[in-house]
Amino acid sequence: MALAPRWIEDPLTGLEAELTVVQPYQAHKWYRCPGCNGDIAPGTGHLVVVPTDANDLRRHWHRSCLDWELRHGHRRRHRRT
User: Fold this and answer.
1) Boundaries of domain holding 50
2) Is residue 57 part of a domain?
3) Which neighbouring-strand residues pair with 19?
4) 77 in a domain, yes or no?
């Protein structure tokens, strides 16, 4: 049974967004996390935030990075280059 979607405010755009959990077995591609600018490798569980009115702004996040952004707001912090 699938979980119901969770709705949050996208920390990058401020828009209402759907939050989806991607399990490790579902992750087949490389992504870049906007929270730390680090890689999310295939096989790594992570979260996807998709603004309801802007699907093209979909972002894949490390769980810890999104948790930090939701707690502290979008502020500049040390990011990997």
Assistant:
1) 6-72
2) yes
3) 6, 49
4) no
Phi and psi for 64 in degrees, rounded to 5? -65, -35
The beta strand positions in the chain, using DSSP E, are: 6-9, 16-22, 31-32, 39-40, 46-51, 59-61
User: What are all long-range contacts of 4-7, with beta carbons under 8 Å and residues at least 24 apart?
Assistant: none
What integer pLDDT is reported at residue 72 of this predicted model? 87
Which of the four pLDDT bands, split at 50, 70 and 90, describes residue 19?
very high
User: What tokens appear for 13 in the block?
Assistant: 């755009």
β pairing state of 59-61 and 16-22: unpaired
Comparing 21-25, 54-58, 60-64, the range with the smallest average pLDDT is 54-58
Token pair of 66, please?
Answer: 């999104």
Bridge partners for 21 per DSSP? 47
